[in-house]
Task: inverse folding
């Protein structure tokens, strides 16, 4: 348990320091205020910092066949670092945003922290956590959209192009991935301990509707406004 928990703590501290440094950098810029930075959730402004490479699934074919006990070198560390990131972002939102503004993300992060935490502590389901991290590839374009909004660049070609890519990657890496994970849980329910299966099922039951609702909001905002 030690190395995993140390990685979580180290990741939390590193993202915390990075967040503080970026806050000072932005607040010191002419005409900028701290509130501008908080609007994109601190370290989330660096998209893809906790996203896995899809190449892992190509280089390790056994991973797609066994998501419980099989994982490539470094995968456990990646999941542990991701837990630290989500913990830092959770604390950041609690300290700097009102509850009615961030309750959905806080709820989202709580589910991720619990599910990924189980993988880190048990050294199992790391492959399943890697599949879940694929959804963060879409975060690159989701956060870029937020940055463009804050820069008042809505009526630009860059924003329109990013909106199209954002929705495309949203369908591929979020909705499709969550659907595949739900199917995997259903097909492997007899091979997963009841407690772990319950946590995974509840997590999917929470995350899937949240992502569908967000997709509808993005579609309505960027294409049917």
Result:
């Amino acid at each position: 348990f030690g190395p995993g928990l140390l990685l979580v703590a180290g990741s939390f501290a590193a993202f915390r320091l990075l967040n503080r440094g970026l806050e000072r950098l932005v607040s010191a810029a002419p005409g900028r205020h701290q509130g501008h930075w908080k609007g994109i959730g601190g370290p989330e402004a660096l998209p893809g910092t906790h996203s896995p490479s899809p190449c892992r699934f190509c280089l390790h074919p056994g991973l797609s066949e066994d998501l419980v006990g099989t994982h490539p070198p470094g995968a456990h560390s990646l999941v542990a670092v991701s837990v630290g990131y989500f913990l830092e972002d959770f604390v950041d939102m609690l300290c700097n945003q009102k509850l009615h503004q961030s309750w959905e993300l806080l709820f989202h992060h709580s589910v991720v922290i619990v599910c990924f935490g189980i993988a880190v502590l048990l050294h199992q389901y790391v492959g399943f956590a890697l599949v879940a991290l694929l959804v963060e590839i879409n975060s690159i374009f989701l956060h870029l959209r937020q940055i463009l909004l804050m820069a008042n660049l809505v009526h630009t070609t860059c924003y329109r192009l990013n909106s199209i890519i954002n929705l495309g990657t949203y369908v591929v890496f979020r909705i499709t991935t969550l659907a595949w994970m739900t199917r995997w849980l259903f097909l492997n329910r007899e091979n997963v301990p009841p407690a772990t299966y319950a946590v995974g099922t509840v997590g999917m039951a929470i995350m899937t509707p949240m992502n569908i609702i967000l997709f509808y909001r993005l579609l309505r905002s960027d294409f049917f406004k």
In short: The chain has two domains: 1-23+76-124, 126-224. The longest helix spans residues 157-187.
